[in-house]
Design brief:
The structure holds 2 protein chains of 2 kinds. Chain A is an all-alpha fold. Helices cover 76% and strands 3% of the residues of chain A. Chain B has 14 helices and no strands. Classes of the chains: A mainly alpha, B mainly alpha.
Amino acid sequence: MPIISLRCRESITGWLFVSPTLAGFLIFFFGPLIAVFGYSATEWNLLTQETSFVGFENYTDALTENQDFWLVFRNSLVFAAGLVPLNMVMALSLAMALSRPFAGQVLFRTIFFAPVITAAVAWAIVWKFLLQGETGTVNQMLAIVGIDGPNWLREPNWAMVAVIVTRVLKTVGLNMILYIAALQSIPRDYTEAALLEGASRWQIFGRIIWPLLTPTTLVIMIVTVVGSLKVFDHIYLMTGGGPENGTMVLAFFIYEQGFEFFNVGYASALAVIMFFLIVALTGLQLRLKGGLQ
Amino acid sequence: MISSRIQTVSWYLMLAIASVPFVFPLLWMLSAAFKGPAEIFATPPTLIPDTMRWSNFLEVFSYQPFARQYVNSLYIAALVSGLTLLFASLAGYALARIRFAGSALLLLLLISALMMPEEVTIIPNFFLMRELGLMNTHAPLVLLPVFGSQGVLATFLMRQYFMALPKELEEAAYLDGLSRFGVWWKIALPLSRPALAAVGIITFLNSWNLFLEPLVFISDVRLFTLPLALANFTDAYGLPLWHLQLAATSLAVIPTLIVYIAAQRQIIESFALSGVKG
């Protein structure tokens, strides 16, 4: 008897400790997550105040009739496909350069990481300023060396390039320090032994360092891919999703449909699609990770 | 000798070139903040303004209630950090140390939120806040980060840290008659200062930089937070007032950068901790 009551008391204490977190979580995350599935089965326009049950119509609309959806989907893919590799290659290169001590190591680390703590809104405003057409500073600099720069944020393809590159500059510092930490945890003996046996720098990187970095690379990849899907403020401020919807990505599309066009049902269906995308991506990458261990 | 010197020079040259796109935007922001509307677009561009227009910074405060918006951002970020630390350390401690029925299920439930962007739940949250009468108040900007994926991440980081602490001290404290709550408060929390600092820093910065939630929930200019205020420096046609916008952006960014440079080691390590575990 006393043992059972002790266990019972432990359980009560445990639940008391987690109760604020759990209550808030259920009200402000889990409840809304369930609700968004429900909303997505309705035709619900805030302006007309009309609601009706339409089943899967919002989804079939998105996937077959509404051409915008596939454009947005393609844009999100292009954005991720550009951002993730560029971010990771740059992060690893910078980390390789900064992982060994040298005079100025801390200075450069501080510089490359600075945009991470700068507000995304501020970073986007400054780059929008720099990337204006003829009078933009970037193009004025390019003109000095004789290059006629494009109107970066007004041409769909260049706008996509611009938001990708500036977003990478904003966030690459975070992945860099994760790689630095991983590189510094590789025992010196491994690489020194290989050097003594006459291995080249590339061989050491390819055969020793890169395989040892794999767990870190996977974690970084998951976080960066998911991070690329939820980018909103950066694009909202730099291009407003334009020109011609050329930089309209899924996170922005949800906001636009929900809070500018008031298509609650359709926006909710988009949110559900995003939910499954995230679940699929993290699931896939965690399986990859599991397969390695 | 010479070749090694060339190597050193080219090494630093390479790093210096690589840092240009990281430093240049912030330098240029500061430079343009002191320029008038005409000089901002002068050809060729000038890094040091002809005349320093300090009046830009005064105008920022008359164009919008910028001081108030600054205070809004500060107190919200402080409140979010405080509440997150309290709730995350309570829940994290229970999940690490107390064996209670249902804890495994709870952990799984929380994990599901870890990666979820706020865009997925923002629409139902909009209606929830409207029902609760919290539209155009700061409550959503506190509640959603504290209890959303940001709060869950904090809970996980705290749990991870508590699990790595040696149990002996806590066991001795029980023998001295301390309750679970007493042990958490008097033993576990003081031992986990590094984790609390890391979670506090990340949470503060996240709230400080939050944009989607203020955009959705706040319409009154006096209730704006800094990110929303910065986006709002436009003329009657919706075109940016660059000299004011960049002056305001400088006022928002420079203090953050100064704190960052002073405490860069601590701040960078905080992010390293969150990334490895998250």
